[in-house]
Amino acid sequence: MLTITCSAAEAIRGVLATVSAHDRAVMRVCARGDRWDLTLAPPAPDDAVVRERGVEVYIERAVEPRLRDKVLDACIQRGTVRFSFLEKQHAKAA
């Protein structure tokens, strides 16, 4: 299953804090060609959900098997967040 680093959890909390509760947006991973995108979007009924470090990430079912050995990380610089998916063996200590 996808693992979430402390940095990614902090970034997700920050992003979600900017969203109005009535928007019903969540952090969601979906396929875009041969890439994965992490975006604010409404959840789909069949999404897988990873709950870790106090946050939730929704994952499109078709993508979920390919993320099992990945780590979601984030780099926050000058108020800008960059998320990345790393191989577990190459990820920094979570």
Question: What does this protein structure show overall?
Answer:
- 13% of the residues lie in helices and 45% in strands.
- The protein has 94 residues and is mainly β.
- It has a single domain, classed as Sandwich (Hypothetical Protein Aq_1857, Chain: A), CATH 2.60.300.
- The chain has a 4-stranded mixed beta sheet. It has a 3-stranded mixed beta sheet with strand order 1-6-7.
- The model has no long low-confidence stretch (mean pLDDT 89).
- This is Fe-S cluster assembly iron-binding protein IscA.
- It comes from Thermoleophilum album.
Helix content: 10-25%
| Global mean pLDDT | 89
Find the count of extended strands (DSSP E, 2+ residues): 7
Q: CA-to-CA gap between the ends?
A: 15 Å
Number of helices: 1
List the topology elements.
Layout: E1 3-4, H1 6-17, E2 26-32, E3 35-41, E4 48-52, E5 55-59, E6 70-77, E7 80-87
Parallel strand pairs: 1-6, 2-5
Antiparallel strand pairs: 2-3, 4-5, 6-7
Précis, in short:
The chain has 94 residues and is mainly β. Helix content is 13%, strand content 45%. A hairpin with a 2-residue loop joins strand 4 and strand 5.
Any descriptors?
single chain; 94 residues; mainly beta; Hypothetical Protein Aq_1857, Chain: A; four-stranded mixed sheet; three-stranded mixed sheet; globular; Fe-S cluster assembly iron-binding protein IscA
